[in-house]
């Protein structure tokens, strides 16, 4: 993290960036744990856990992640997947007011094909702990980092990845951190059993 924690906050349940959130939707971050092996996005392990100042209250617009993908669970080009975020809508083009949460339908992409698209942007390998997704003209972009990749599995949404990176022009696929490879890391900081993570 590049900023001190006391300069950051988490806002839950927002749909428009311009919305003013009531105080009960704002949470202070009291601890941030980056994965111990993280060096840069190209090397992988791009995942962190945040500890908030109090328990989250679930409501209509705030709920738990339905389920984390499990090791060995297969997602491919036939999977129906979505990414969400408030990032740029194209390379360097920010969202306009009111900054409505964006959703993009993406297709999971074979790692070799993904690397062909991203090699010029500095990517040398797509590790097994990563997953690629995108569609022509549709991808995650600057400002979407840390957002979810959700795919349907047996008619239920599953969190499969976390936005890591792509290329500076927001053209081509996005590389996501594959959450199923980090279930132990997530368990360590959430004090939840594997069964509770589903």
From TrEMBL:
One of its GO terms (biological process) is proteolysis. InterPro entries: Peptidase_S1_PA (IPR009003), Peptidase_S1_PA_chymotrypsin (IPR043504), Peptidase_S1A (IPR001314), Ser/Thr_Proteases_Immune/Dev (IPR051487), Trypsin_dom (IPR001254), TRYPSIN_SER (IPR033116). Signal peptide: none annotated. CDD domains: Tryp_SPc (cd00190). SMART domains: Tryp_SPc. One of its GO terms (molecular function) is serine-type endopeptidase activity. Residues 1-191 form the Peptidase S1 domain. Keywords: Disulfide bond. Belongs to the peptidase S1 family. CLIP subfamily. This is Peptidase S1 domain-containing protein. It comes from Megalops atlanticus (Tarpon).
């Amino acid at each position: 993290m590049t900023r001190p924690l006391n300069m950051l906050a988490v806002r839950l349940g927002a749909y428009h960036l311009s919305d003013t959130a009531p105080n009960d939707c704002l949470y202070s971050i009291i601890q941030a744990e980056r994965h111990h092996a993280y060096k840069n996005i190209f090397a992988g392990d791009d995942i962190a856990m945040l500890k908030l100042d109090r328990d989250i209250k679930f409501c209509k617009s705030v709920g738990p992640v339905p389920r984390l993908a499990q090791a060995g669970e297969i997602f491919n080009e036939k999977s129906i997947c979505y990414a969400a975020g408030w990032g740029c809508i194209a390379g360097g083009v920010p969202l306009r007011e009111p900054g409505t949460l964006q959703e993009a339908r993406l297709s999971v992409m074979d790692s070799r094909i993904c690397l062909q698209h991203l090699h010029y942007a500095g990517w040398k390998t797509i590790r097994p702990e990563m997953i690629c997704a995108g569609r022509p003209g549709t991808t995650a972009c600057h400002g979407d980092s840390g957002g979810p990749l959700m795919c349907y599995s047996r008619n239920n949404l599953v969190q499969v990845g976390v936005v890591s990176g792509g290329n500076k022009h927001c053209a081509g696929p996005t590389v996501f951190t594959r959450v199923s490879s980090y279930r132990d890391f997530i368990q360590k900081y959430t004090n939840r059993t594997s069964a509770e993570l589903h």
